[in-house]
Amino acid sequence: MNPTILKGACHCGAVTFEVETPPEPAVRCNCSFCRRRGAVMSPPFPRDRLHILSGEHELALYQFNAQVAKHYFCKHCGIYTFHQTRSNPDNWRVNLGCIDGVDAYSLDAPVADGASHSVVGKP
Predict the structure, then answer these.
(1) pLDDT tens digit sequence for 49-64
(2) CATH number of 5-117
(3) Percent helix, percent strand, percent coil in the chain, to nearest 5
(4) Is 30 left (phi over 0), alpha (psi -120 to 50) or beta?
(5) Is 0.90 surpassed by the pTM of this model?
């Protein structure tokens, strides 16, 4: 199966990107960070399928807890664009709310139990 090429941007347009992945199956997460940002995320994909077209220097990095996951957001408008996952650092996910032509709220997006895995030292 050939992945779909999705094009996206942050809110202000400083960061633009494309990613080779279908939008579904989408997922949300109940960890402390995801719960607060409310993003609907793409299926996981390898980093080489994410192509930053402009504004890479406009991205800021946020890490917390185990310092494994890397959450990137635009340092101007604050929009979360994509992240490297904690459960498998070879995988990335994109914020489907940033993708052109995709209504992230219309997708079936079950909630993953990230809260059970978000505290260092917990099994």
Answers:
(1) 999 999 999 999 999 8
(2) 2.170.150.70
(3) 20, 35, 45
(4) alpha
(5) no
